[in-house]
Amino acid sequence: MTRRRDAVVSHALLVLASLVALYPFLSILMLALNEPGRRLSGFALPENPSFGNFTNAWERGGFSDALVSSLIITGTVVVVAVLLSVLAGYALGVLDLPLAKVVVGVFLLGLVMPYEATVIPIYHQMKEWGLLGTYPAVILPQIAFSVALGTVWMRGYFGSIPATLREAGMIDGAGKLQVLRHILLPVAAPAVGVLATLLFLYTWNEFLLGLVLLSDNPDARTTPVALSFFAGNRRESDPGTTAAAAVLVALPVLIAYVAAQRKFVQGLLAGAVKE
Amino acid sequence: MNAPARWLAGGGAALVLTIAACGTPGSSSEDDGPARVEGEEITAPVTADEVAELGDVTLRVLADAGEESTLTELIPEYEELYPNVTVEVEYRSYDDIVRTEANTLSGGDPPDLAQGAQGYALDGALVEAGLIRPLDDLAEAYEWFDRYGESTLGEFRWSDDGTRFGTGSIYGISPVVSMVGVYYNKAKLDALGLELPHTFADFEAALATAQAAGEQPIMFGNALKSTGLHIFGVVQGQNVDPAVTRDWISGTDGATFDTPENVATATTIQEWAQQGYFGEGYNGLAEDDAVARFAAGEGVFLIGGTWQMAAIQAGGGDFGFFPMPPGESGLHVASGSLGMGWHVSTESEVVPAAAAFIGLITSDEWAQKLADLGRVPVLAQQIDASEPLFADAVAGSGTILADGGNTYSFDWATGTMMASMGGALQELMDGRLTPQEFVTPIQDDWAAFQAER
Amino acid sequence: MTSTTTPRAGRDHAPGREVPAPALGRRRRRRRDWWGYLFVLPALAVYVAFALRPIGETAYTSLFEWDGLTLATWVGFGNYTELFESGVLQSTLGHSLVFLVFYALLPTAVGLVIAGLMTRIRIRGLALFRSVLFIPQILSSVVIAVAWRWVYDLGGPLNAVLDALGLGGVTRAWLGDFDTALVSVGLIGTWVQFGLCMMLFLAGAQRIPRELYESARIDGAGAIREFFVVTVPGLRTELRIALVLTTIFALRNFDIVWNTTAGGPGTSTTVPSVYVYQGAFLTREVGDAAAVAVVLTLFILVVVGAIMAALREREAR
Fold first, then answer.
1. Model confidence over B63-90: pLDDT tens digits?
2. A62-274: CATH superfamily
3. pTM
4. Is B4 inside any structural domain?
5. Where in the cell is it found (chain A) (predicted)?
6. Residue with the larger pLDDT of the pair B267 and C116
7. Best of A23, A269, A273 to mutate (most C CBs within 10 Å, chain C)
């Protein structure tokens, strides 16, 4: 029965791959659950599980401030970027704009651009404006990169809606905004949801901009930046506490992931529309 | 959508358009210039009344994280003496200060007082960009030269354009000494039957003995690359006149790193590494972590700075400290200097309050308090040092200073020396560079920097 | 995958959009709608101000010697020639190429092979596996770095396994060793990407018509030939997507390197993005950093362009 053997081998491979995918996170979870101060090595399985490392990390790392910062920054970026992307995507995908292809091409460029190419002038610009260490310093450039993905995304989606539906409203003489709000948006809601999830993930996890623009102000650091500072970029003298901090930082995203898995998975797979 | 050429072309055109609008980088900051507050000359120690004239003000301070225990004591005292001033402090690690302080001071709302780092990597840039104020008037008013010694303060002197180190106005001051020496684990030394080494040869023999007994001779963590520089400094002292090293770090014309003595130093360090004196995996271990391990009883010796004393005492074990014993010259030599200098921002509007702060921390009364907090004060002769490890550190620092053996710190030499020398040392210790190959690029970095000045 | 295919299918239904050069008469009838740009304007303005313009400024800055504080000095292409002569460009881009193998080629290959093995069977619990395999994608790269720093630690689990296997001789601080740091960081990237690649290919493979496999089998093709004749060509679109995504990730890669090795030991893991950060914000060689940023950007454009050109849709115009 080769079919049966194939099935067993395939599923075994999937289980193995899943273990590999999970192990690094499980290993720091295990590390974090050890008693604080215990000298750890090897697999560091906790003998007397304790949350001491978590309370240590929470108190010393300023993660409550960081969570608030991350929430404000991510929330603003996602809401504004989705709004702007829906408008732009609608116009470029549905309305008959001259030079639309050139404009879309310009947006597409943003999908491959590294932040490294923009961070130097952005830093000096924000310094001139006195915005270093404030939320807008990262919110503005993050929106800029998010609308590139968002516009391309929404344009693709709106373009795929059957023309009859798109034009129905126009014939009734409804304004463009009404057509968008009452006819297209209800249809596009799932695509907007996936986009929002994707942008949430990218914005929440962004590191370089936060490192450069928010380092000066400990109150404004995002969670990845706070974790990087807390862990030092090469420290492990207190692996238990460092691991606990990493778990704490990962937790909000993991919870969101468990709650909205389908959207995440769809988003990640389809984040591919990118090119 | 599938034709990359199309959007590359479109994007490229857009890029070209955006370039047109740029001015020379840095031009705007030159137009505005830092708003220098004139006419705040300090002629005598600042009195509480003079500070009170400022009204209710905030004194903003940027300090090294290692300063926290000191400032936690100092600030309440300061605020009691000058009740109209509220002090706000932000702490950053040494690395972060070197990296970010120039940007912070040139930003819109700089702190009034900031601890810098001597040398070209930070202080030179601060002076060059006009971000910190000369303190010659404070030096006069608070008699720094008489109390600290004229030559001691050379490391805070800069020409006004920030290009020449060691001459010109004074831009900073520190009440403490930072010296690299050797910490040792007393119990282990006893168990190995070793005496305190009195010569460099003794020290090398002790390393071999320790290793033969299965101990790790030197606890070492070099992931951040800076610790290797300290090792180089204390080993170099066997071969090189300290004045030559200071000249090189200060950027004196004609100085060079590419000397037989430095090659010999590199050879010794490479041999130690190949002998396994530093243990294994040190490039994956951060300095603070190595100190924590040493404090917990791993390793016989640790080559470290007086600033690490508190962390080593925290282990609760019995430790001692000595300056690296001398070679043939008989001189005790080590990387060492005063602590990170206190600077006053050119944009500060509360100069009297800042001056009063500096006056307090450099006062004779505070020398003892610094000592009580485990810092080695410059005014060491005035203090009582009874805790044994601390007494070792005071004595050791005194020995080095008496020999004129403090050689500053290699990372002062250029803006990139920490990275280039630290990285090269890692490669040297790993056997990837010969001692000669190690020396050459360091001199190249130095020469390139000097050429630009 | 539904979202990727619908827009593509839908585009064919959209009249007048993809038709090249519409006839003059028609263009007049359907008045082109400049007012519609009001909808695009907010997005375009933010994008130009905070993404495009800064790129232009970076390019401009790269022509100066600048410490970020005082007035800059014009040096033309001096920064570029200096970076080339000192070997910085070659070495950092060389490390990037190694990462390209580990971050892009390896996960793609692993994903492809595993997906190929599974074309013949029905997978139970696909949704669950998919959720688990995506976890590396959703974690913050700093969290990933902290986790792997522990895995690779001198006293960490990897060395414990090696010791247990009697391979104590090869244990080491994997990220602190000149010989292994680059590969170790590379494997972190493989770990981040392999799940995504696998799931992309599995989803794609489910849509390859069964008849293609049946006719291949009738022709007497074994599993391996089947893989190359049916599976791989059928996954052309997914291959391109996977390669483009992972390539961009590999070349932009700053977070993981910075938080595991910070470019060390020596400069053995210094990639362009690390150099940009160090030069621009730590050592105040802003012009050099900008030049490396420009080279990195062009490098990404060229590599991504090449992948897209090589794997373009067969039915493409």
1. 988 888 899 999 999 999 999 999 999 8
2. MetI-like (1.10.3720.10)
3. 0.85
4. no
5. Cell membrane
6. B267
7. A269
- Shortest distance between the Cα of C139 and any Cα of chain A, in A, equals 6
d(CA B314, CA A108): 56
Which partners does chain A have (≥3 C-beta pairs < 8 Å)? B, C
Looking at the DSSP bridge assignments, the partners of residue B157 are B170
pLDDT cut 70: percent of chain B above it: 92
Mean pLDDT value across residues B432-440: 94
Asked if residues B206 and B388 have their Cβ atoms less than 8 Å apart, the reply is no
Summary mean pLDDT of chain B: 88
pLDDT score at C159: 92
Q: Are residues B332 and B414 in the same domain?
A: yes
Number of structural domains, chain B?
A: 2
- Which one of A235, A241, A273, A275 would you mutate to disrupt binding with B, by most B Cβ within 10 Å of its Cβ? A235
Q: Does domain C81-310 have CATH number 1.10.3720.10?
A: yes
Nearest to C94 by CA among C197, C203, C182: C182
Q: Determine the pLDDT at residue B19.
A: 47
> Using one digit for the tens of pLDDT, what is the confidence trace for A164-221?
776 666 655 567 777 788 788 888 888 898 899 889 999 999 999 999 998 877 789 9
Of the partner residues C53, C143, C159, the one whose CB lies closest to the CB of residue A249: C143
| R_g (Cα) of chain A, nearest Å | 23
ipTM of the complex: 0.90
B351, B372, B391 - which closes a domain: B391
Tell me, what DSSP letter sits at residue B326?
P
Q: Is the residue at B1 inside a domain?
A: no
Domain ranges for chain A, please list them: 2-52, 62-274
Question: In chain C, which residues have their Cβ closer than 8 Å to the Cβ of A271?
Answer: 245
Q: Locate the DSSP E strands across chain C.
A: 64-65, 73-74
B139 CA: distance to closest CA in chain C (Å):
28
Residues B281 and B271 occupy one common structural domain: yes
pLDDT digits 0-9 by tens, C235-257: 888 898 899 989 999 998 899 99
For C45, which residue in chain A has the nearest alpha carbon?
A144
Q: Which of A107-116, B16-25, C99-108, C151-160 has the lowest mean pLDDT?
A: B16-25
Taking only the tens place, the pLDDT of each residue in A4-13 is: 777 888 888 8
Nearest to B125 among C264, C284, C312 (CB): C284
Over its C-alpha atoms, chain B yields an Rg (Å, rounded) of 24
Beta-carbon contacts of residue A183 (< 8 Å; ≥ 6 apart): A165, A166, A168, A169, A174
Say yes or no: B349 and B332 in one domain: no
Q: What value, to the nearest 5°, has the Cα angle with vertex A235 and ends A233 and A238?
A: 140
Mean pLDDT across the stretch B239-248? 92
CA distance C259 to A228: 7
Supply the range of the domain harboring residue B101: 38-177+339-391
